[in-house]
């Protein structure tokens, strides 16, 4: 299946490494949600969650200058419209590099579902969510949590990068 993408501002979501302000985690492509003011971004596809591989693994990179505690900018992972993960895109949640997240999808094992990554940004203080290397795992132990080397990227420079494209 092919990922479907949508941005209320009309931006593409899936980018080649040459058009991203960060290097993809693996390969040459990654998804970029948010990154501009007042945007709702979606990345979705229909998949079957195998009973023997019910753990969703994905890598994310958060760069935000927004305030925490107000939920102005946020992201969700949805399965058939159910929120299976919710996170605030804000300065305290910056990842300073790629980090892996693993979600337990046992409740959907054996079913064909719509998997969606969603981000919402308001009209001030930029937030970016990069997604890469999405896969289904056999067990939680198959997850490979890396040590992240902190790297500061100015959110304003990411905003100028995208708007300059």
Features:
5-stranded antiparallel sheet, 1 helix, Jelly Rolls, globular, 165 residues, 10 strands, single chain, mainly beta
Layout of strands and helices, then pairs:
Elements: E1 4-7, E2 14-16, E3 29-34, E4 39-48, E5 55-64, E6 74-79, E7 82-88, E8 99-104, E9 112-121, E10 127-137, H1 155-163
Antiparallel strand pairs: 1-4, 2-3, 3-10, 4-9, 5-8, 5-10, 6-7, 6-9
Short recap of the structure:
The chain has one helix and ten strands. It has 165 residues and is mainly β.
What percent of residues adopt helix (DSSP H or I)?
under 10%
In whole angstroms, the N-to-C terminal distance is 28 Å
Q: In total, how many domains does the architecture comprise? A: 1
Question: Secondary-structure element sequence?
Answer: EEEEEEEEEEH
Q: Would you count the extended β strands for me?
A: 10
Q: Could you report the average pLDDT, rounded to the nearest whole number?
A: 90
* Radius of gyration based on Cα positions: 15 Å
Instruction: Give the strand line-up of the largest sheet.
Output: 1-4-9-6-7
What's the CATH topology name?
Answer: Jelly Rolls
Portion in beta strands? 35-45%
How would you sum up the major sheet? 5 strands, antiparallel
The shape, in one word, is globular
Classified by CATH, the class is Mainly Beta
Derived from helix and strand composition plus strand pairing, the structural class reads mainly beta
Point out poorly predicted stretches.
none
| Secondary structure tally, helices | 1
CATH architecture: Sandwich
